[in-house]
C-alpha cells in the first residue's frame, strides 16, 4: 500500500527548471524521494498536523538535486540518502550538512527476468549497477554474500569506491567473468524491464517505486546487517528546529514503526 495523503508537491524532478520559495516564508520544507521517503514523511505530516505542526514535502527523482537544493537554502532538510552517500557528498562538494536521525534500511536486490535462480547464471556475467561510487562496496558485498565473488582480503571499502569501474574485477576472485555496467540509479528498473544484462542490482527505493518487492521479486537481497542507513539531513546549525525535532520524535514512536513494518512488508527495515 502506498500513501500519498496530503503531500504538498511543490516540485518534481521532471521539471526542467524550478524555483523554490519555501525558505523565504514560514513553511518548513523537506525534499524526499517518492518511495518510501516521501510516504514516510506524509505519514508524519498527517499525525503531526493534529498538533498544529505543518511542513511541506518536495519530491525528487534523483540523487543530486535534493542536496543542491538544501545547500542553496531552497529546502530546510532532505530525506533520501544513506549515510555513506551523504559523507561522500560532503567530501566532494563541501556541504555544511549534518545527519540528524537514522531512520531505515532499504536492501538492494539482485533482479533478473532471464534466470530463475543464481545457479542458472552463465559463466560470463554482465551486471548492471548504480553509478554512485558510495554504493559500490555494498553491491560487491551482496555479490559476495551470494557466492558470486570473493573480495580480496587486502581490499577495503575506499579501494572499491575509488576504483575505475573497469578495474573492479581486479579486487575480487570469481568463478564468473564479470563485467559491470554503471548507470544512473533511476534507470536501473528500466534496464531490468528491458531485460538488459544478466543481473541488475536495484536500490530498494527504485525497486519499490516500480512495484517490485525485494523479498518477493529479487533472486537475492542484501543482508539487513549493513551500515547503509537512510538518514534525515539538515544544514549545520539547524538541528534543533522544532518541526524537525517533532518529525524525529514521531519516527521513533511505536505507531510509526508498526506502520512502516506493515506498509512495506519487510522491504523497508527500521534502523536499530
In short, what is this structure?
Helices cover 32% and strands 22% of the residues. The chain has 272 residues and is of the alpha/beta class.
What does this structure look like?
With 272 residues, the chain is of the alpha/beta class. It folds into two domains: 129 residues, D-Maltodextrin-Binding Protein, domain 2 (3-Layer(aba) Sandwich); 113 residues, D-Maltodextrin-Binding Protein, domain 2, CATH 3.40.190. It contains ten helices and 13 strands. The strands form three sheets. The protein has a six-stranded mixed sheet, with helices on both faces. It has a five-stranded mixed sheet with strand order 9-6-10-5-11. It has a two-stranded antiparallel sheet with strand order 7-8. Helix 1 crosses helix 9. The N terminus is likely disordered.
Amino acid at each position: 500500500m502506498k500513501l500519498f495523503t496530503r503531500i504538498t508537491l511543490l516540485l518534481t524532478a521532471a521539471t526542467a527548471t524550478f524555483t523554490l520559495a519555501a525558505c523565504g516564508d514560514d513553511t518548513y520544507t523537506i525534499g524526499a524521494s517518492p518511495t518510501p521517503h516521501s510516504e514516510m514523511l506524509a505519514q508524519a505530516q498527517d499525525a503531526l498536523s493534529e498538533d498544529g505542526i505543518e511542513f511541506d514535502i518536495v519530491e525528487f527523482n534523483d540523487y543530486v538535486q535534493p542536496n543542491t537544493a538544501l545547500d542553496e537554502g531552497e529546502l530546510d532538510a532532505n530525506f533520501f540518502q544513506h549515510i555513506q552517500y551523504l559523507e561522500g557528498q560532503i567530501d566532494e562538494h563541501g556541504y555544511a550538512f549534518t545527519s540528524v536521525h537514522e531512520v531505515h534500511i532499504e536492501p538492494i536486490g539482485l533482479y533478473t527476468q532471464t534466470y530463475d535462480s543464481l545457479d542458472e547464471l552463465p559463466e560470463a556475467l554482465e551486471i548492471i549497477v548504480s553509478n554512485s561510487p558510495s554504493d559500490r562496496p555494498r553491491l560487491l558485498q551482496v555479490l559476495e554474500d551470494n557466492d558470486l565473488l570473493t573480495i580480496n582480503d587486502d581490499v577495503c571499502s575506499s579501494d572499491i569506491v575509488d576504483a575505475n569501474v573497469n578495474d573492479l574485477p581486479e579486487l575480487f576472485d570469481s568463478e564468473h567473468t564479470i563485467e559491470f555496467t554503471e548507470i544512473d540509479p533511476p534507470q536501473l528498473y528500466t534496464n531490468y524491464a528491458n531485460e538488459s544484462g544478466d543481473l541488475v542490482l536495484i536500490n530498494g527505493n527504485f525497486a519499490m517505486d516500480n512495484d517490485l518487492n525485494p523479498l518477493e521479486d529479487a533472486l537475492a537481497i542484501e543482508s539487513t546487517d549493513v551500515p547503509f542507513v537512510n538518514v534525515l539531513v539538515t544544514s549545520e546549525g539547524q538541528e534543533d528546529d522544532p518541526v524537525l525535532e517533532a518529525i524525529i520524535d514521531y519516527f521513533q514512536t511505536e505507531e510509526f514503526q508498526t506502520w512502516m513494518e506493515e506498509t512495506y512488508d519487510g522491504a523497508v527495515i527500521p534502523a536499530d
